[in-house]
Amino acid sequence: MPELRRNPVTDQWVIIAAERVKRPHDFRVPREERRHTACPFCGGHEEETPPEIWAYRLHGTAKNSPGWWVRTVPNKYPALTIDDLLAEKHQGIYQTMSGVGAHEVIIETPRHLVDFEEHPVEQVEEIIRMWRDRYCDLRKDPRIRYIQIFKNHGLEGGASIEHTHCQLIATPRVPKSIEDELAHGIRPYREETGRCIFCDMVSQEKYARERMVLEAEHFVAFCPHASRFPFETWIIPKRHREDFGAISEYEIKSLAWLLREVIERLARALGNPPYNLIVHTSPVNTAADSGYHWHIEILPRLTRMAGFEFGTDYFINPTPPEMAARYLRESKPPELRPH
Amino acid sequence: MPELRRNPVTDQWVIIAAERVKRPHDFRVPREERRHTACPFCGGHEEETPPEIWAYRLHGTAKNSPGWWVRTVPNKYPALTIDDLLAEKHQGIYQTMSGVGAHEVIIETPRHLVDFEEHPVEQVEEIIRMWRDRYCDLRKDPRIRYIQIFKNHGLEGGASIEHTHCQLIATPRVPKSIEDELAHGIRPYREETGRCIFCDMVSQEKYARERMVLEAEHFVAFCPHASRFPFETWIIPKRHREDFGAISEYEIKSLAWLLREVIERLARALGNPPYNLIVHTSPVNTAADSGYHWHIEILPRLTRMAGFEFGTDYFINPTPPEMAARYLRESKPPELRPH
Predict the structure, then answer these.
(1) For chain B, what is the domain count?
(2) Which residues of B are less than 8 Å from A16 in CB distance?
């Protein structure tokens, strides 16, 4: 029997379509032959990208030369650009703003033939440190209202470049999705109960257990009750933390282990699934404390959004999150894992 | 210079990414070899679908036999089903509803090797009549709050079956997207001005002309100012019409011609673009007049939604709608058009 479930944070409903239940093997995505072995993101090709913004590199090596292990460069085709005046225009019922912001690429490694889950955990820590450094630098621009850190993996996940990387787009407005979470979920819940809805969600998930995937010292991973996508997984700090930028060294280490493990389990269950990894956090440079609770959403892209989803904003998910979580909990490493 | 534009109905912003401008030939999608010539949707294969709900057929021919020209059947794997009790359940912060509703497939023709724009205009009229008939039948069920008519074309558009068809899903709740349009755009605008925002949009587009594509007696087609997708095109009734179900015979004829022409022009400009066609209309079985103005949105699926779009609900569109509209206005039929 199909079921409609409400996401209490966004007020978005999903249909868990029991007539179409799909298990991991229905989705298994073969790992494609990797095509390129030298690209502009590879070590030794630093001249082929726009000049670097920030890199972790060996002492004494020059900018835009080898010797780095995580490197941030401007996106060659930026969606938003920093060198603009913030101007607004009204024409009848329409409103336009200049596209002020920033669009950066975080190259996770100089090595081409590596996927995220193949990084050593120390490398994942460095990637998260780079997220934090770029986040904290960009928020200094008072025109910026939100900083979206994300990663697209695989063709269906929207990755146009194979070499593993993350991206960061800073926007001059608080995104609608974050405004919706604050307006429909976070603020009304706080007014009613005095508590944070994400904190209560973590408690309820830990108690119910059926959607839990994994726990680390400072974070939990679970498949959300109203998962829009099969095997959708959220990673949430256990203690109330509004702002990703304030992540501590202890939390970075805990998150790096958990995040790498979750992505590895998804890859074990699903082959090489395309996915989007999205950091949700508090707006920046706005007045008061927002009440937000930052977290990461991992969205495997195994189903397609089509007319119904765009028309209604209801997603149809053929894999109940309780089933997805069970597979991810029980996922064991293969005896021999070729590298 | 990139630009942010606000959709005044949904309060959704899009980024028109001038650094990445794409013209029709950047998107051109080759027409794939059609693989099957006999499928469960073909004439003569009526036994392979669930029993038909409604069909336009030759007088004297039996149900579930040949002789039809437009035929509606239940979806074999329904997202929602009609034979359920409407029940609600609360567990802590979560809310669940039974998946009451309907999911039907409208087979547009018994012929396999035909795309929408290849139908004679009289056939498109019949398809629209079938939309209306099924819509008006399903709204009789008082549990239904919205009826979503849509069409997915092409693999990237989410069509799993090649034989040209539309779908209809009836839901027990008003979708979030429609609630958003009513709450953020339609009602506040009416309170402020006393007018319908869609009516004013039609006036403004007809006056500005730069985004207009085509006009028929009762409808206009234009590329919306805050287009989320390259070549996104909306078709709107010129006179204020809340409810799709009340479409008149005159309007059906006018719409059939315009809709077919718009899809044909998209195909001429873009080859065989995947797209979603979505009918937006007023909720049903709710109390008062909603103030909605029904219309059709055609979303060519030439770009991918990825981490940024899911994180922020901002779309990045590399083709300014003014440019898309110019191409669609100037689109001429080729001298020889093989059929």
Answers:
(1) 1
(2) 99
